Every structure is written in structure tokens, then in C-alpha cells.
Amino acid sequence: MQEPTGELLRLLSSDPPTVVLTGAGVSAESGLATFRGPGGHWEGRDPMSLATPEAFDAEPMTVWRFYDWRRTQAASAKPNPAHTAIVDLEKKLSNLTVVTQNVDGLHERAGTAEIIRLHGSLWTLRCTVCGAEREDLRPALHPLPPGCGCGGMLRPGVVWFGEQLPRESMGKAQNAVRNCRLMLVVGTSSLVYPAAAMPQAARAAGAFVVEVNPERTPLTPMVDEHYDGPAGEILPGFVSSMA
Ligand code: OAD
After folding, report:
1. Is the distance from the beta carbon of residue 23 to the nearest atom of ligand 1 less than 6 Å?
2. Scanning 89, 95, 142, 202, which has the fewest C-beta atoms within 10 Å of its C-beta?
3. For residue 172, what is the enclosing H or E element?
4. Residue having the nearest C-alpha atom to atom 35 of ligand 1
5. Using DSSP, how many helices (H) and how many strands (E) does the chain show?
6. What is d(CA 72, CA 91) in angstroms, rounded to the nearest whole number?
7. Catalytic, out of 83, 107, 119, 226
8. Exposure string for 189-206, b = 16+ CB within 10 A, e = fewer
9. Tens of pLDDT along 69-119?
10. Domain with residues 36-76+121-158, CATH architecture
11. What are phi and psi of 2, to 5 degrees?
12. How far apart (Å, rounded) are the C-alpha atoms in residues 111 and 90?
């Protein structure tokens, strides 16, 4: 565990409006692959052939097999100390908003009550014909591709490259970002927009921005503090220092 610096500790003690922005690194210690870097989903795979509407139109089974495999992985993963520490922070701070790019559902399973999902959910299916959405928690779907009652094909309820983010989630996230005094950016490479722009927007609006990541990212030079280590070790340190 790493203790927060005096400045961060003072800020945490003042109960600031806080945003925690997370990416795939927050689930790494649950055994789920991140996207970039060694062993990541995009190593040896072209995201354009798996995570775009064009790829789904051309090869729905290829895309579905990828997402169904990710559902299976996520279903057998358990929330890790980073997810739990975020729940603990939520209890200690009166105004904390979790904004995630993750689709795995681990924040929710850890107990985060309210979450803004920027990239949708692996557990939501949406009809490509009638647009109906439904939750489906089965780890693997049979048959693939799954069908809707209307006869249309269902697609994963995630946001693909080239698609708009859900308007309501974006609006809520931007509002929280504008109004926060502290932002914790955890486990994201800060390469994918619009999420990658949020820490800079928060900082421009006067927030103290902290990055938790064992690697440096394009955001690192712009943050107030960078904690160099796994989220499952750093975040519990923040919580215990507030006790
Ligand atoms: P990335 O795979 O791009 O980045 C994961 C980040 O987590 C990296 O910066 C790692 O250094 C960091 N990391 C790894 N282990 C960690 C740990 N234990 N604790 C803290 N950090 C750790 O994942 P995202 O930034 O989430 O979109 O990627 C953003 C979007 O790009 C995803 O939502 C996905 C992807 O393509 C779509 O599929 C549309």
C-alpha cells in the first residue's frame, strides 16, 4: 500500500466533490486483460475488425465470439481490492461519481451503487432491428448470434469505435467532471476520447487530478500527482489513510 501525499490527504479529508474515472487497468488484478500492451485484447488483433459497427455488419459471428468470450471471462472474474476501495471511498465521501470505460460489470458487483458507463455493458443486448435492449447475465450465449423476439439480430450493448457515446451518460459525466474538485484517473491509457479529455477538463475547471497507473500515459505530464503502482495496492492506501 502507498500512502497518499499530504496534499491529497488534506483534500480527501475536506470531502471534495470527486470523480473516479476508470479504465481496463482497474480490472487487471481481477485477471481480465486490458486492451493495449502485452497480453492486451488488441495485441495481435485489429480493433477495427472486432469493435466497429462495420465489422459487426460484415462478420457478426466473429464479433460475437469475441464478446461472448469476454462475457465468459468477466463472469468468472471477481472484483479486486481496487473495486472495493472505490466502494469504500464512495461511503466516506458525500459526493463521489464513478465514471467508467469498462463494460465488465465488476464495479457494480463490488457494490458501487451508481455508475456512469461511457462504453455500455457486456451484459446488455440490443436489437439491431427494433432497438429493444435487455439485460442478459448468462456467461455464454447459445445460439450465437442471439436473436430478438422481433426476429432481428441482437448485438452487444457496448459502444464501438466510430459510435456516439450514450447521450445521457455523457451529459451526467461531463456535469460531474465540471463540478468536481478531485479526480482520480485509474487504470486507463488515456488514449481513447472522449473519456481521455475528461481529466483535462476537470483540471481546467480547477480540480486536483491524480493518476493511478503503473505506467506513464499521455496524461501523466498534466496531472497534479501520479501514483506509480497497481490500483489494487494504491487505492486501499488512500482509503486507510482517511480512517
Ligand atoms: P487500455 O488497455 O488502453 O489501458 C489500460 C491501462 O491500465 C494502461 O495504461 C495500463 O498501464 C494500466 N494498468 C494495467 N494494470 C493496472 C493496474 N493493476 N492498476 C492500474 N492501472 C493498470 O484500457 P483503457 O484505457 O480502458 O474501447 O482503454 C480505453 C478503451 O479502449 C476501452 O474502453 C476500449 C479500448 O479499445 C472499446 O472497445 C471501444
Report:
1. yes
2. 142
3. helix 167-179
4. 35
5. 8, 9
6. 30
7. 119
8. bbebeebbebbebbbeee
9. 999 999 999 999 999 999 999 999 999 999 999 999 999 999 998 999 999
10. 2-Layer Sandwich (3.30)
11. -115, 130
12. 10
**Domains of the chain by residue range:** 6-32+77-119+165-240, 36-76+121-158
Cell numbers found for residue 93 = 465521501
Q: Global pTM?
A: 0.97
* Cα-to-centroid distance, 147 and ligand 1 (Å): 31
| 3-state class (DSSP) for residue 28 | helix
Q: Is the pLDDT of residue 173 over 90?
A: yes
- Is residue 119 part of the annotated active site? The answer reads yes
At the topology level, CATH places domain 6-32+77-119+165-240 in: Rossmann fold (3.40.50)
| Cα radius of gyration (the chain) | 18
What are the pLDDT digits (tens) for 149-167?
Answer: 999 999 999 999 999 999 9
User: For the chain, how far is it from start to end, CA to CA, in angstroms?
Assistant: 15
Fold matches, 6-32+77-119+165-240 and 36-76+121-158: no
Decide: 68 in ligand 1 pocket, CB within 6 A: no
